[in-house]
Structure formats: C-alpha cells, structure tokens
C-alpha cells in the first residue's frame, strides 16, 4: 500500500460552503442500529439537530432507540447543551432537511453497501459535506473508491457505546483532503468527543487491534484451561483494567521503571517480554472452542438478560467518566 499523499480538493470553490466545525447545523446519522442510535443521542445531547435515516428500520423504533440513550445522557452529569437538539426521521436520503453539515455513516460492515450509500449521498449533498464512516475495520481508501468527491470521505470510528465513550479514531484515505480531516477533528472536539488521528491505514484501526490482541490471548488461555472466562474477566477488571482507565501501556511501563522511567524499565525488564511474546497463543476459533466460550460465558453471566448487563455497564461507565473528569488534568 503506497503512503497516503495529501490530495487537494477538486472543488475549491464549493469548499467555501463548509460550515465552521462548531456550528449548529443538522447532522445526518445514516444507519441507526446500536452504533447509530448512540451517535444520534450524543449529537442531540450536544444540541445539534439530528436526522435519522435507515430504510431497514421502522421510524418509531429508531426514535425509541435514540430517545432511550438520550434520556440516559440528559439524566447524567455528562456535559451537554442546555436544550437537546431535535431528532427527526427522514424516510429516505431524498427527504433530508436543508443544511446538513456532517454525515456519520453507520451502515452494515459491508464495503459494497457503504460504497452504494456514498454514491447515493453524492447525488444529494454538496461536495464540501464531510462524510465519516463508523466502520470497525474497513479502510477509508476502499470506501471512498469510485466517489466523485473522495476528498471529503474518512473514517470516524467510535468505541461502543458511542453515546458514552469519548474516543473517535479519525483515519484518512489515500484521497482524503487534509482540510477535511482537520475539520472532522475540530468537529468531534466541538461536540465533546476525544478524536485521535490514526497516522496510517491498517485493518481495525488502533483500538480494535489492541483489543483483538487481548481477546486472542484470552481465547487461548480459556481453551488451554489456564483460566475460566469468569476468572479472566476478574483478572482484568480487578488488575490492569483499573490502571488502563488512567494510563496506556507506554505510561504504565514508563512508571514501571521507577525514577529512571522507560529507559530503566527496558534495561532491567525489557528482555522478559520476548519470552512472553514467543509463548503467546494462536488459537483457532473452531466449533469446539466456540462452544467452550459460549458455555463458560453463559455460566458466568447467563443468569441475567443482556439488557440488564448493558444497563449496569452504562451506569458503571457514567461513574468512571465522572471520576476521570475530576482526576484527569486539563488539556
């Protein structure tokens, strides 16, 4: 894959119509499943008008899903606008409100489906409107291929649940204009998110690659009988998981070196890592392993329905976010 080269916009005259990233323009949320409903609630919580479009879902179901998450936000201490933005449903992309200033696309994880939606969008929206895809693992370069205005297409990947977790990974494609990336970063900051620009396109971006590495080893340890699913969760939530909410791997090991920092850590303990890396598992997710995972997860958590666990997770995340607002130094 060749390195990404900044691509100047092919329509500089039309670019002047792009609103400021902190404007009160309508936001189009395209695809209103778990991720899209969370995005819709968040944008509304921050005071932006939101238009929902998802031909595969009933309007009332979309409204209810967004309203449930929005109600959670409005009752929380998570900063938002004094008045929530209106949430409306359009039957199709041909019925959008005027002045849509940003698109958050959350369609099914299919390259063909996303490309088809972008072709339809390009026939409706002005060329300056930034389009961000919530894709988990597809690349912006592939999504924007075939677009008439690929310079405004990028990845804006949230972490689930998007109405609570601040992270958004912003990834440019080979044809994405740097001005569009900068605008998207400013927009996400303006609506209270924590955008991180990923410097190179890779499958799964950054956060999901890290979590996939951990999940792979968790599968290996479970399959080998080293620990049960419940025990693996306990190890993380009562140990490194607590620290990870405050500091990532590099600060962790920098502090692990004591007064000498990361250099001292690498000098004294760095050589212990290759031995562990060499012993990490490469499990097969075959039928037998899948059955083992399902059996153990249900044994640990099957006594309560998933929505109850989801509600408890969200309440715990709200409490953790409140603590982080107190503990994190201002930037």
TrEMBL record:
GO molecular-function term, one example from the UniProt record: NAD+ binding
Domain 3-hydroxyacyl-CoA dehydrogenase C-terminal: 204-275
SUPFAM superfamilies assigned: 6-phosphogluconate dehydrogenase C-terminal domain-like, NAD(P)-binding Rossmann-fold domains
Annotated 3-hydroxyacyl-CoA dehydrogenase NAD binding domain residues: 27-201
Protein name per Swiss-Prot or TrEMBL: Hydroxlacyl-CoA dehydrogenase
Pfam families, per database record: 3HCDH, 3HCDH_N
UniProtKB keywords: Oxidoreductase
Source organism superkingdom: Bacteria
Entry's Gene Ontology BP terms: fatty acid metabolic process
Lineage: Bacteria, environmental samples
Classification via InterPro entries: 3-OHacyl-CoA_DH_NAD-bd (IPR006176), 3HC_DH_C (IPR006108), 6-PGluconate_DH-like_C_sf (IPR008927), 6PGD_dom2 (IPR013328), NAD(P)-bd_dom_sf (IPR036291)
């Amino acid at each position: 894959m060749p390195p990404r080269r900044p691509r100047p916009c092919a329509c500089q005259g039309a670019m002047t119509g792009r609103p400021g990233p902190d404007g009160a323009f309508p936001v189009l949320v395209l695809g209103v499943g778990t991720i899209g409903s969370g995005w819709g609630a968040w944008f509304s919580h921050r005071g932006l008008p939101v238009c929902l479009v998802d031909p595969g879902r009933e309007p009332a179901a979309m409204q209810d899903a967004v309203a449930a998450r929005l109600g959670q936000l409005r009752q929380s201490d998570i900063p938002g606008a004094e008045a929530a933005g209106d949430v409306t449903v359009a039957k199709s992309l041909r019925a959008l409100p005027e002045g849509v200033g940003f698109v958050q696309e959350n369609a099914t994880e299919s390259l063909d489906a996303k490309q088809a939606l972008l072709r339809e969008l390009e026939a409706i929206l002005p060329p300056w409107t930034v389009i961000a895809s919530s894709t988990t693992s597809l690349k912006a370069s592939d999504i924007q291929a075939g677009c008439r205005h690929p310079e405004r297409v990028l990845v804006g990947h949230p972490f689930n649940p998007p109405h609570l977790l601040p992270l958004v990974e912003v990834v440019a494609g080979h044809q994405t204009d740097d001005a569009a990336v900068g605008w998207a970063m400013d927009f996400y900051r303006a609506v209270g998110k924590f955008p991180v620009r990923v410097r190179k396109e890779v499958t799964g971006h950054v956060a999901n690659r890290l979590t996939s590495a951990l999940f792979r080893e968790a599968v290996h340890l479970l399959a080998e009988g080293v620990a049960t699913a419940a025990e693996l969760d306990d190890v993380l939530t009562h140990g490194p998981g607590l620290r990870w909410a405050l500091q990532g791997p590099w600060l962790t090991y920098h502090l692990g070196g004591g007064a000498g920092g990361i250099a001292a850590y690498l000098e004294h303990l760095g050589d212990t890592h290759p031995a562990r890396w060499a012993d990490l598992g490469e499990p097969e997710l075959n039928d037998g392993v899948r059955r083992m995972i399902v059996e153990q997860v249900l044994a640990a958590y099957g006594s309560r329905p998933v929505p109850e666990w989801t509600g408890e997770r969200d309440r715990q995340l709200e409490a953790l976010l409140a603590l982080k607002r107190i503990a994190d130094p201002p930037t």
